[in-house]
Amino acid sequence: MIGPDGSGRGMDAGEMVRRRLGRERLAAACRAVASLPLARGAGACRLGTLALLVGLCACAPVVPDRRAAGAPHPGGAPGQEPSALVCALQRSAPAVAHAELREFLRVVEARLRAAPPGASAEETLGALAVGRTQAVLVTGYDEPLLTGREQPDARFRFPILGAPPRAASYPSRAAIEAGALADQAPILFWTDDEIGLFFLHIQGSGRLVLPNGRKIRLGYAGTNGRRYTAIGRILVERGELSLAEATAPAIRAWLAGHPAEARALMQRNERFVFFRRLELPETAGPPGALGVPLVAGRSVAVDSAVVPLGSVGILDTTLPSGQPLRRVVVAMDRGAAIRGPNRIDLFLGPGAAAAEIAGRLRSPGQVRWFVPGAAPTADGTGP
Q1: Is the pLDDT score of 311 beyond 50?
Q2: Residue 380 falls within a domain, yes or no?
Q3: pTM score of the predicted model
């Protein structure tokens, strides 16, 4: 995900939402979104974890049966999950480039605020989804957590680098790790987890815990411009893992179990990501391509060349646990592995549950994007 800190969103819209929902209720919904049915169902430029590790392509959809026993509530906890979607819409509208789409986001937000208590977002907004159903391959991404230090020692010896000055070209990952940018790229922090750092590069943002317990937010600041290579695909080609086995947890386990080979394999991916420190509230998601904080379980990364940022749709897919998932989602991000109309990457938030789902999510599904011109306007009239 790419973009500046988007914390300065429209106050007028915020006040309207708070009058309807109350400040505490809205904040609680935003905090809870990552741990609602999405996380519980797993027993959570943006770069899809499995998509980039394995190099996935789209496949035909399997429409999930939402009547299946044990399926999560389609909109999350009544009275909470629609509020989290309001957060996503409120943040996105001012940043959307197209005037018609900006107005449509306000229409959707108004409908959610006027919905009866307990109504899910999917029930409230289902009538707006009049576009063509699109088959998609759904992957996920999360906000990883690492331990860090401000000074290196024998254990914390892997640097997290800030962006160097602009240049026509930059060295490869292997060269940078060998010190090629030592006098150009500032060292922000040090970590003790070389594999975790590699996965931080895949996700593009994360959280760092310092010895005093303070958490630092890290965001994407650019890359070295080199080609991305999926190391999971290499392991599959070598016969180390089957395609079905090549999940993020399995790839992590292989790297940890083969320390003599791990670094060379990770360096086969020449792309290196630079970071910047973010000043964000603990409960806010990292900024996406719209420059505003993402909302776990609601924000998706798309190919913005075919799906405009700010688009709203209903996504149907299946979680790694086998449970069906139906969500109203907002296109708030883009990713290097998300190409064409048949790919969606679902943001799952921080935490172990989010990482577990993101690492295993590779499900066919479908999305029906809402058509702004076919929806009622904010005053309730037709198009």
Answers
A1: yes
A2: no
A3: 0.74
